[in-house]
Structures are given as structure tokens and as C-alpha cells.
Design a protein that fits this description.
alpha/beta, TIM Barrel, 11 helices, 12% strand, binds iron/sulfur cluster
Length: 360
């Protein structure tokens, strides 16, 4: 594994970005919003109304994992508030540059489960395909912030090997498109790939792990909905939303379109210090998700990735929060509190003491 690799974008249509005064970007193509995302700490601070006292820390974190924030997401950030929960997810801090024991570049040891370039096979019945090495947004806590995507750039020849792997293993029933963010890829490429998967008889499900419908809702357009609607595979989209403020009307409209294309919508969140580490915030998130037609699925504790230790919420506190959340929500709105343990065959429930002893 290479350390400290800064991601490179896939080629996208280049159109200059100029947000309207009200922050609206709906007149621009998703490609232009993607290519026009803020990628400079100084520009980010200016856009959110913070002064240059934050610059040294921001530039330090940016060195190992570059800033990337699209305008549509930026427009939901409260200007002038360094504690804004959406800003906290994208603004590099000096803490990222500190070495903390136990925080490593590959916390899930994924390098041990890569049978072919671009393919991660950790769990029975399903494989994860690194469909793109880029994201529309760079989340500071991302467990793949040091993943060597450049070693897994997918050429047609590599995809051919990956697809052969799927064809040869009839125990597989689900293909997961991940990344990076798979929806950064062009629709032509995704339509081809999904067509290939569709033709593998033992596959039943297509799952996409993506943040794009949240951070650039215009990504959900007619071209995308066409290839999604055409496949015989059952479709599941696992979104990634950590705070209710991320869900505005444009996200709700995108979710409605996805549901009309037969997509089941789930959400996974990461429990993050300073973002969503309170019962009220987590409850509001579950309620808002359901308003958008999304079921809460997982609440992950932080994976110990180098540069993200300042987001950590200890297990005992995570469990207390989850217990309190259980008392305030119907069961179908309660996400499972989990962590990913290297070598385990599935997500592991976080439980540090019997639930009857929990209090908050
Ligand atoms: S969108 Fe997902 S993969 Fe991309 S940086 Fe954020 S958490 Fe990581």
C-alpha cells in the first residue's frame, strides 16, 4: 500500500462554476458542479466566512488528503460558524497532522482482500468493486483517505478480469459498486458495467455506496435513471448522511427519483465527535432520513484511520448514545451500531457492556 496518496479526479466535462447569489446551482450540469468543487483551503475558508487563523491547520491536513467541497453541499453550511456540523466534515484541521497511536493508513486491512485490481472480496456472497478512485466530496474522517486508488484505476482490461472473477464464482449474489464514489464515473461507463453485471446469471443484486445524491443532488438525472431502471438486478443504494442538515429539498427530490426507479434507499452514518455525537442530533437525523424515504441502516463507530483521531467517540459513549436513541425512536428508525473488524465476515455490533446496564 502506498501512503498518503492524494486522489485524482476522473476526467469530467469542464464548465466554469459560478453559483447564483442564493447559492442555487441547479442550472449547472452535475459534471460542472463536480469539476467546480472547492479544492483549496483558502477558498474554502473564504466561502464559509472564516478568517485565516484556520489556514495553517487547513493546509496541513490538505497536504495528505486534499480539500474537496461542491457548491451544493457548501450552500447548506452556516457561514461564519467553525462548529457547523457539515463544515466539520470537510474542513481540514491541524489535528489531522498529528500521529496518534493505533491510527493507521489501512485500518480495515483491505490490502489483504484484493484478489484482482479494483476488487475487494471480504464477505461471503458479495464483492465490492472500486468503480472510481474519486469522490465528489472529501470527508476528513474517511477510512479510505489513504487508499492507493492509483493502483486500482480501472481500465477495460482490468474490468475484464474483475468481471471474470464474478462470473467464475457462483456463490456471489451481490455486486457492490463503491470507491471513492461510483457515481463520479460517467453514465456511459456505468451503463456498460451494470449491463455486464446484469448478464451474470447468479447475481441478484446491485448495490451502490454513494454520497453523490446528497452532495450534488443533480447527479440523479434522466441519463442515470435510465441505466438504473434498465437492469433486472434488484437495486439498493446506501447513502452516507451524518446530519439532518445535509438533507435539503434538493436531496429529497433526488431520493424521490431514485425510488421511482425502483431503488431501495438505506443510509449509513459515522458517529463523529463534533458532528453528530448527541442523542438529539441522531434522533433528528433518523426522522429526517425517513422523511426523505431513506431507512437508517448503520451507525458506524470511527475506523481508526490516520488523521481522523479527533473525530473519535469512545465505544462506551457510543453505546450509551445508541441506548438512549433506542428509547426515542421506533425500531425501524434505529440504525445498527457497528464497527468493521479486519478479518471478520460481517460488521460487528458494538457492545461494551450488557444493554441492561446502559444509561444516559
Ligand atoms: S464520500 Fe465516502 S469514500 Fe468519499 S471521502 Fe467521503 S466517506 Fe470517503
Amino acid at each position: 500500500m502506498c501512503a498518503m496518496i492524494t486522489r485524482t479526479m476522473q476526467p469530467v466535462q469542464t464548465i466554469s462554476l459560478s453559483a447564483a447569489d442564493d447559492g442555487s446551482v441547479s442550472e449547472q450540469s452535475w459534471q460542472s458542479q463536480l469539476s467546480g468543487a472547492i479544492r483549496d483551503p483558502k477558498a474554502l475558508l473564504a466561502a464559509v466566512g472564516l478568517d485565516e487563523r484556520w489556514l495553517t491547520g487547513a493546509e496541513g491536513g490538505h497536504q495528505s488528503f486534499e480539500v474537496r467541497v461542491p457548491q451544493a453541499y457548501l450552500s447548506r453550511i452556516q457561514k461564519g460558524d467553525p462548529a457547523d456540523p457539515l463544515l466539520r466534515q470537510v474542513l481540514p484541521l491541524e489535528a489531522e497532522t498529528q500521529t496518534v497511536a493505533g491510527y493507521v493508513n489501512d485500518p480495515l486491512e483491505e490490502a489483504d482482500h484484493i484478489p484482482a485490481a479494483g476488487l475487494i472480496h471480504k464477505y461471503a456472497t458479495r464483492v465490492l468493486m472500486i468503480t472510481s478512485g474519486a469522490c465528489a466530496i472529501n470527508c476528513r474522517y474517511c477510512f479510505r483517505r489513504h487508499f492507493p486508488y492509483e493502483d486500482h484505476a480501472a481500465s477495460r482490461a482490468q474490468w475484464s478480469k474483475t468481471l471474470d472473477y464474478l462470473r467464475d464464482d457462483d456463490s456471489l449474489i451481490e455486486a457492490i459498486l463503491s470507491g471513492g464514489d461510483p457515481l463520479v464515473s460517467s453514465d456511459a461507463r456505468l451503463a456498460w458495467l451494470v449491463g455486464e453485471l446484469d448478464a451474470i446469471p447468479h447475481l441478484k443484486r446491485l448495490r451502490l455506496h454513494t454520497r453523490l445524491p446528497v452532495v450534488i443532488p443533480d447527479r440523479v438525472d434522466d441519463t442515470m435513471l435510465a441505466w438504473l431502471s434498465n437492469t433486472r438486478l434488484q437495486k439498493v443504494m446506501v447513502l452516507h448522511i451524518n446530519h439532518a442538515h445535509e438533507i435539503d429539498d434538493s436531496v429529497i427530490r433526488a431520493c424521490e427519483k431514485l425510488k421511482s426507479a425502483g431503488v431501495t434507499l438505506l443510509n449509513q452514518s459515522v458517529l463523529l465527535r463534533g458532528v453528530n455525537d448527541s442523542v438529539d442530533i441522531l434522533r433528528a437525523l433518523s426522522e429526517r432520513l425517513f422523511e426523505a424515504g431513506i431507512l437508517p441502516y448503520y451507525l458506524h463507530v470511527l475506523d481508526p484511520v490516520a488523521g481522523a483521531a479527533h473525530f473519535d467517540v469512545p465505544d462506551h459513549e457510543a453505546q450509551q448514545l445508541h441506548e438512549a436513541l433506542r428509547d426515542r425512536l421506533p425500531g425501524f428508525l434505529l440504525p445498527r451500531l457497528v464497527r468493521e473488524v479486519p478479518g471478520e465476515k460481517a460488521k460487528t455490533s458494538v457492545q461494551v457492556y450488557p444493554t441492561s446496564q446502559a444509561s444516559f
